[in-house]
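USER: Write out one fold?

ASSISTANT:
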Amino acid sequence: MSSETALAAQHAVSSWPVLDLRERRVLGVLIEKAKTTPDAYPLSINALVTGCNQKSNRDPILHLTEAEVEDTLIRCQKKGLTIKITGGRVERWKHNLYDAWHVDKVELAVLGELLLRGPQTEGELRGRASRMEPIDDLDALRKVLRPLVERKLVVYLTPEERRGAMLTHGFHDPQELERLRSRVTAEPIAESPLPAVSASSARDERLSELESGLSTAREELAALKQTVAGLQEELRQLKQSLGA
């Protein structure tokens, strides 16, 4: 982290603006796809809808429409969290979170997983975030978490020293955070013995990524057809003007 970034991080606000469920999901998908399918990033609205609604690695499962995703992107843009890319055949979006949150690539992967799934144990988080950025073990994860916790980008819901400690992101409102703490205290979740993503989950994730890529390819093909049709019309008009 550069000295300027470190200085900005030191002066970061002690609590972060609340993000609603749709904002968390859209930002989580942008983080995830930028790391796992970089060739398809930035994302079109259609690809974002597919990513937001996929059934693997998401909690809760959502059914957002294109209009809802677009409205969410615009709200995030006003907060300085997303950027619209124009000028291409299809309008696309990317996140601006490295600048907005002053985090490195591994820290962003951790936050992305928390935005996609909410509260989880350290072991679950390490296994899931490792598909985006390598995290060798729990000790390595805790080194990543330490500055995030100090800056309140990550919040522990149970004591850190407890086995199977639960944590979440720092974008909940206070009432929601208190409800999560109460739920975890009332129904403690044991550390998963297999924190890594299962073969079935990995297969579902890969299928979702392929579906997203296919959706993007279809959009580009449709835009290309429109361009060709426009060129053909211009050629026809030119021939008419030349008397051909």
Observations:
- The longest helix spans residues 199-241.
- The CA atoms of residues 4 and 213 lie 36 Å apart.
- Confidence is low (pLDDT under 50) at residues 5-13, 191-198.
- The chain has ten helices and six strands.
